[in-house]
Amino acid sequence: MPSNAPILEFDPAPRAILEPQPFPPTQPIPNRAVLCFFAEVLQHLIDEGRLQPAGALKSEIGLSPYYTLEINNQSILVTHPGVGAPLAAGFLEELIALGVNQFVACGGAGVLNARTHAGHAFVINSAVRDEGVSYHYLPAAREVQPSPRVTAALQASLEEHKVPYELVKTWTTDAIYRETATKRDQRVAEGCEVVEMEAAAFFAVAQFRGVEFGQLLYGGDLVVAEGWDSRAWDQRQDSRSALFWLAVDACTRL
């Protein structure tokens, strides 16, 4: 039924005119994947020979390779998911079409409260849908949740390794330069601790396609009404590498 806001015109049809048609992999791939936003962590593992090429996804920005990682007699697919909900959701769709059905994402997020130090770990248990992609996969609602089983695996990994963390709600937005003071205060009032650009889309695609998805984040830049502070969020190599291996550990528990 037409709406004044087209984004609210959800269509539950299981098939679309264009369905995911990824390039076939160069070898059999695992059904579990870690989607890592840290390009330098992936490059380091490639340089060390830990990641073996298995194929690539394709977009107008070029090829996005995916790899296999062997750990504890298990195989995990590893790739960068792209930045922003539309690209990340498209890559997720193609990985699902290749047969992957269990996902753990690890990345960084803006922190909405100054009490949280940079590098602190967060496991997402809900995402406010302030982006567009999720409305094409699920009926309109304020929030969307990850897979309970993947969330539990992430918690178990962090607790076993004695890593302090919080289970939190995130604010997913498409508009990095429209995080206004008023919107930030509204999101904090409804319980959001962090802000990022993909989680709500990830969870919505996963629910629509019937796969499992969870996400681990670390606190990076500070987003408060008084202003923005980068806190050198993208230079915390130890935190980023550690988060990747925690995500891998959680993935092996699925």
TrEMBL record:
Ranges of residues in domain Nucleoside phosphorylase: 32-223
EC annotation from Swiss-Prot or TrEMBL: 2.4.2.3
GO cellular component assignments: cytosol
Family annotation (CDD domains): NP-I_spr0068 (cd09007)
Catalytic activity, reaction form: uridine + phosphate = alpha-D-ribose 1-phosphate + uracil
Top-level class of the enzyme under EC nomenclature: transferase
InterPro entries: Nucleoside_phosphorylase_d, Nucleoside_phosphorylase_sf
GO process annotations (BP): purine nucleoside catabolic process
Gene Ontology MF: a single term: purine-nucleoside phosphorylase activity
TM annotation in the entry: none
Name of the protein this chain belongs to: Uridine phosphorylase
